[in-house]
Amino acid sequence: MKHTTFPRNTIAQGDCIDLMAAMPARSVDFILTDPPYLVRFKDRTGRSLANDDNADWLEPATKQMFRVLKNDSLCVSFYGWTQTDRFMSAWRAAGFSIVGHIVFRKRYASKARFVSYTHESAYVLAKGRPALPDNPPADVIDWVYTGNRLHPTQKPVASLTPLIEAFCPEGGLVLDPFCGSGSTLAAARSVGRAYAGIELDQGYFHTASDRMAA
């Protein structure tokens, strides 16, 4: 396959597996992403997420993430805790090692069953042996409620920026292959990093594009 340089500060619409396969190897400084959790999620208004009902994409997408990430660099990925074994298996099969875990603390419960769910979580994954950051982020970060107006699982920019500042060098490129409404991209731009986003859903692609153009 012919590889082409992914333009900085752009968003592409399509399957991230195919689009990452067209990117050069070792061309991304940091990946921060929020993939489908494999839980058939629906919010209160009935909004759902593409490919949240199957795991067919998980291993091939993770392998491409590992390939395009520079050596000795990091990836932070949110995940569905009920599917932790599947995510762990895919990360390790791709070549990632697990070097950290982050809890995002909420002041509200997003759901309640046996317990009230008052946090989100993500793993810090390493390709090779990255250098330790000068200012490591805390492994517990406060969550700011977005209202999920732009996306059913919209992440707050303020909770993502400490990760980008710590794990992506100044002037580096942040990739989000499941960029949704573009929170990772907005966070990258706010701290002077370049961004590249990929979104499968055409509606959310336009939402993210309009957000970054505003």
Describe the structure.
There is one protein chain. This protein has 214 residues and is an alpha/beta fold. It has a single domain, classed as Vaccinia Virus protein VP39 (Rossmann fold, 3-Layer(aba) Sandwich), CATH 3.40.50. The chain has 6 helices and 10 strands; from the N terminus they run βαβαβαβββββαβαβα. The protein has helices spanning 16-21, 58-68, 84-94, 157-167, 183-190, 202-213, and strands at residues 10-13, 28-33, 69-78, 97-105, 111-112, 116-117, 119-127, 140-142, 173-176, 194-199. Helix 5 links the parallel strand 9 (173-176) and strand 10 (194-199). It is globular, with a radius of gyration of 16 Å. The mean pLDDT is 94.
Strand order of the largest sheet: 1-10-9-2-3-7-4-8
Low-confidence stretches: none
Q: Please report the first level of CATH classification, the CATH class.
A: Alpha Beta
User: What spatial form do the alpha-carbon principal axes imply?
Assistant: globular
Reported for the largest beta sheet, the result is: 8 strands, mixed
Assign the CATH topology.
Rossmann fold
Report the sheet-strand fraction. Answer: 25-35%
The arrangement of helices and strands along the chain is: EHEHEHEEEEEHEHEH
Our Rg estimate from Cα atoms comes to: 16 Å
Architecture, according to CATH?
Answer: 3-Layer(aba) Sandwich
Instruction: Determine the mean pLDDT.
Output: 94
Q: In CATH, what is the homologous superfamily?
A: Vaccinia Virus protein VP39
Please report the number of helical segments: 6
The N- to C-terminal Cα distance equals 35 Å
- Class from helix and strand fractions: alpha/beta
Number of domains: 1
The percent of residues in helical segments reads 25-40%
Please count the beta strands (DSSP E, at least 2 residues each). 10
